[in-house]
Specification:
2 copies of one chain form a homodimer.
Chain A (H helix, E strand, L loop, with lengths): L7 H28 L2 H8 L3 H7 L3 H22 L9 H15 L2 H13 L3 H26 L8 H18 L6 H20 L10
Helix pairs in contact in A: 1-2, 1-4, 1-6, 2-3, 4-6, 4-7, 5-8, 5-9, 6-7, 7-8, 8-9
């Protein structure tokens, strides 16, 4: 990325924006929606409230943009590291499942969860979070397919990958109040083995129809 | 259950308590933690605020008891209906997975989710919700094993059942802001097939060690 065309002022503005977005995610993860105001985030980012409002006119703008930005950054970081993954096979499957679940058990998921639950009862947030959830969900699904080297054309693959992301969300929730690391490691191992078996068995295991 | 030993006053008190608990879950599911006060619940239950406080001295008492009570009732209702389930095999597995996931995508889970997320940032709730989560989690795990006719002594079974409950939590979350029924049905079908294959294959599929 060339920065030659940007003025120092544009660089400063971009850096401020970036600091605000990162502070907003940390703030949400730590303090929840009730405790997360533009003022608190501005303070944490070392920016005036006026500057924060210049970048993000409303509280909803700030926090929605923050979760989207940090999610995109984390996904890009994972993509940059795929060269480090083992070749396709059970070891890679387990490594990828671990990566995905690590993403869902850290501060980013915690922040998103607070926003998500607030959106269930706050109208101005609701529509924005539904749209955000769709975009981030689609991106995560595509990345998971890519990392696992799976073809969505194979029957059952789409649902298996969706189940993996749903499981990750559930494990994220289970990690909210207590450190669930130990229990989770058994689940991740077992899930990885089942996922591998499902994709090895040419995707969907036939289900008896009732 | 004999009611012969109870006085009419005890019956009324029990009925009041029951109405409060059910109203508290509905209230949480609809209005979230911020909107759920003892006053709102008392009104919805058609009980005076004083009577509500006689049964539940604090807001935390009321909502924690409500989620625990309704969870126990739902589980008991499922237990009472196990005679209707198909015999052990793929059809039963899918029916049980559906039952579990239905439990996690209804108002009870929604209420629990609001309480859970509030507990992440509200100290008086935190310890109580951790304890509640442990008790309800243990009960749900035991019921799932029972319904699926699985023996936890078999390697991998415990983790597979845990994964099923984690998946259910994730699907509950995915259903919070939008109706996820259609997407979910594919995930449930696929997961049921994977679960059946895992238990048929004498539990854990071996995982390559790296």
């Amino acid at each position: 990325m060339s920065t030659a065309a940007r003025t120092p002022q544009q660089d400063r503005s971009r850096a401020t924006r970036q600091r605000l977005l990162e502070a907003a995610v940390d703030c949400l993860a730590e303090l929840g929606w009730n405790g997360s105001t533009v003022t608190v985030v501005a303070e944490r980012a070392g920016v005036t409230r006026g500057a924060a409002q210049h970048h993000f006119p409303t509280r909803e703008d700030l926090f929605t943009a923050a979760v989207e930005h940090v999610a995109a950054e984390r996904l890009a970081a994972l993509r940059a590291d795929t060269g480090e993954l083992p070749p396709l096979g059970p070891a890679r499957t387990e490594a990828v499942v671990e990566l995905i679940i690590r993403l869902y058990t850290g501060p980013l998921f915690r922040a998103a969860l607070h926003l998500w639950v607030a959106a269930a009862t706050e109208e101005p947030l609701r529509a924005r979070i539904i749209a955000l959830e769709n975009r981030v969900g689609r991106e995560s699904h595509r990345a998971a397919l890519e990392f696992l080297g799976l073809d969505e054309g194979t029957p059952g693959v789409r649902e298996t990958v969706q189940a993996t992301l749903d499981l990750a969300r559930g494990l994220g929730l289970a990690n909210l109040l207590t450190d669930d690391t130990q229990r989770r490691s058994g689940v991740v191992r077992q899930w990885s083995a089942m996922l591998q078996a499902a994709v090895d068995g040419a995707a969907a295991v036939p289900v008896e129809q009732n």
